[in-house]
Specification:
Length: 337
């Protein structure tokens, strides 16, 4: 363990001790069990059918306000005899939503159909337009993605917030007054020193995390592009899902490599953000624009490319990923090979 890491751990331990000493206790009134939630009829829903597998994604409430819990349920129905289907839980967040809860369940019906459910409880970071990004499903060695779900988060109603807070404030016990001046005079210099060490340690860890994210983004994009190439070009019925997955791979690469945190935006809005990304050259922005517009023609305009054009689009995505990484090396970005 380096000196920076040792100092960081010591600072965190002291801060935790201070919080314990100041805190005066408290109970956890959360219920020990939660009743099963069911999506209402107005829930935002998308359905994907792929061979013997049917995947349904539902999000509710359809018009939430900031601060309301948002529920997203992935339901996978597998026809009798189907094996190797799973939806791995690998998320710390879904787009810009924070995951505060995750509940899985599996049921086998009388006819042999297996129904797997995964229910996410999400919290929005603010009001405005958001999108729940695609969820990944594995069918053997094949990987498919569900469609995005658009959600609009309304701001908090001030009148409603005041009404909800008034009873809670009226029932608060009287607070005890504590004089912190002697503590500050005694521990002030030590606290300042520990905070300085904490800042230095956090900055070092953050630089390391950013560097690692760039390497991981490249490796993950290459792995998923190779998997998509191994499946071959899609036919007309599978073109939508194939191109949705292809564009999602490139978007996630940009998010990890350049810090473009905008998965819920439309293609036009995403390109506006990507064009401002530091380190993305002008010719790369043009390639990205042409690539995403080609994917949108298939997803939204009903265009059906032939096999050669589909594989050429995939090769263009791979070339974009490789060229941006090579350009970063040439400019001095010391990224692991």
């Amino acid at each position: 363990m380096t000196r920076v890491q040792q100092a960081l751990m010591a600072a965190i331990a002291l801060c935790a001790l201070a919080l314990v000493l100041v805190a005066c206790g408290g109970g956890d009134d959360r219920p020990s069990a939660q009743r099963r939630l069911e999506p209402p009829p107005e829930a935002v829903t998308k359905v994907l059918e792929h061979g013997p597998v049917k995947a349904t994604v539902a999000a509710w409430p359809a018009a939430p306000r900031l601060g309301d819990p948002i529920y997203v349920r992935l339901t996978i129905e597998q026809k009798p005899g189907t094996t190797g289907v799973k939806a791995p839980f690998e998320h710390e967040a879904l787009g810009r939503f924070t995951i505060s809860g995750w509940t899985p369940s599996t049921v086998r019906r009388d006819d042999g159909t297996v129904v797997e459910e995964q229910t996410y409880t999400l919290a929005a970071p603010g009001s405005g337009r958001f999108r729940v990004p695609p969820l990944r499903i594995l069918i053997g060695d094949e990987e498919i993605l569900t469609e995005e779900l658009p959600l609009t988060i309304a701001p908090v109603d001030p009148a409603r917030a005041a009404e909800e807070l008034a009873p809670a404030r009226a029932n608060l016990p009287p607070r005890h007054t504590v004089n912190y001046l002697p503590l500050f005079l005694i521990g002030g210099p030590l606290t300042i020193g520990l905070l300085a060490l904490l800042v230095v340690g956090v900055m070092a860890l953050r630089r390391r995390a950013v560097h690692q994210a760039k390497v991981t983004a490249y490796d993950e994009a290459v792995r998923r592009l190779e998997q998509l190439a191994a499946r071959g070009a899609p036919d007309a019925s599978a073109a939508d899902g194939w191109f949705v997955e292809l564009s999602a791979i490139v978007r996630r690469y940009l998010e990890g490599r350049y810090g473009v945190r905008a998965p819920e935006l439309t293609t036009e809005e995403f390109l506006q953000v990507a064009r401002r990304a530091a380190g993305l050259a002008a010719d790369h922005r043009e390639l990205l624009t042409a690539f995403l517009e080609r994917c949108d023609r298939v997803k939204f305009a009903g265009y059906r490319p032939d096999a050669d054009e589909s594989m050429a689009t995939l090769k263009a995505a791979r070339a974009f990923v490789e060229d941006t990484r090579m350009r970063a090396h040439a400019s001095g970005d010391q990224e692991a090979a």
